[in-house]
TrEMBL record:
Keywords: Hydrolase, Membrane, Transmembrane, Transmembrane helix. The keyword Transmembrane applies. GO terms for molecular function: N-acetylmuramoyl-L-alanine amidase activity. InterPro entries: MurNAc-LAA_cat, N-acetylmuramoyl_amidase_3. This is N-acetylmuramoyl-L-alanine amidase. It comes from the Bacteria. One of its GO terms (biological process) is peptidoglycan catabolic process. CDD domains: MurNAc-LAA. The chain crosses the membrane at residues 21-42. GO terms for cellular component: outer membrane-bounded periplasmic space.
């Protein structure tokens, strides 16, 4: 039967039936359509301005309301995903690839508390010409993302962006100004052939002029021990056979970068560039990646325990 004739209105269902039908339709829309009903309402919220015209790629749809199996990470889960959140680490790549072009500037004397020393040096190199400054920047750049992935804020004293330096006193000030939770200065040694292995340099107790390391000696030692242990685990390298009596640790009071620090800080000499066996490691990208991982492991261990 048709209701298409003139003057005819199709029969209207009872009002109660309409309400029931609408209720069912809305329930299906909300439950079956997931979060799109809610998302549409939010995205269509008035207010004008730059955000009015949104493409489908601008937002992820909300999860359906009440969908089982979807939960917000707890505080402990967030902390485990970013164990270094809120921590500041300053990485100090030793020397600078441009230092050799600025001998007058880097030879200028600066106060290190106990005495005066050169602003900086060119560093050493392997017999094949791979420089310490290239090495330190490479390891530092590998180290940075590893620490950042764990939530740390990472600052460099230089990233190859300076003509020379910075001077050793300025390197210390950068860590101090950042209120760093840990500072690691990356180096490679230039000792005689046959001298092999790495060592970590710790600040000795100094209280003279602008230098006062007494508040950081103990914490820096813990940092140094953690970095040493992490470095051994990741690289398999043995501690130095010529410095530190096999401990891999050496305490010094003549380094401005340590003397002027007010935050926990160590140097690591990752190997001897003048020894052919060590040089083979230092020039290997695969090994430098392990070195960065080892240093990171030590920093993480120190910061999680502090």
């Amino acid at each position: 039967m048709s209701y298409a004739g003139p003057g005819f209105e199709p029969p209207q269902p009872p009002r109660s039936s309409v309400r029931r039908a609408l209720a069912v339709a809305l329930a299906v829309l909300v439950l079956g359509g997931g979060g799109w009903f809610v998302w549409g309402a939010v995205a269509d919220d008035g207010g004008g301005g730059k955000g009015d015209a949104l493409s489908s790629g601008d937002y992820e749809p909300l999860s359906p309301i009440g969908t089982p199996g979807i939960s917000v990470p707890s505080g402990s889960e967030s902390e485990s995903a970013a164990p270094l959140a809120g921590k500041v680490v300053v990485v100090d790549p030793g020397h600078n690839p441009g230092n050799f072009k600025h001998t007058a500037e880097i030879n200028r004397k600066v106060d290190i508390g106990t005495n005066s020393k050169e602003c900086d040096t060119t560093g050493t190199a392997t017999n094949s010409g791979y420089t310490e400054a290239e090495f330190t920047l490479d390891v530092a750049r590998r180290l940075r993302p590893v620490l950042e992935q764990q939530g740390a804020t990472v600052k460099f004293t230089q990233d190859g962006d300076l003509a020379f330096g910075p001077c050793v006193d300025e390197r210390a000030r950068i860590g101090n100004a950042a209120r760093a939770d840990a500072v690691v200065s990356i180096h490679a040694d230039g000792s005689s052939a046959g001298n092999r292995g790495f060592h970590v340099i710790l600040p000795g107790a100094v209280h003279e002029g602008d230098a006062d390391t007494r508040p950081i000696v103990a914490s820096s030692k813990v940092l140094g021990e953690d970095v040493k242990d992490g470095f051994v685990r990741e690289t398999g390298s043995a501690p130095s056979n010529y410095i530190g009596d096999g401990t891999g640790l050496d305490t010094r009071t003549d380094l401005g970068g340590l003397n002027l620090s007010t935050v926990p800080k160590v140097f690591i000499e990752c190997g001897n560039m003048r020894d052919s066996a060590d040089a083979a490691l230092l020039t290997s990208g695969t090994w430098r990646e392990k070195a960065a991982q080892g240093i990171s492991e030590g920093i993480v261990s120190f910061l999680r325990g502090s």
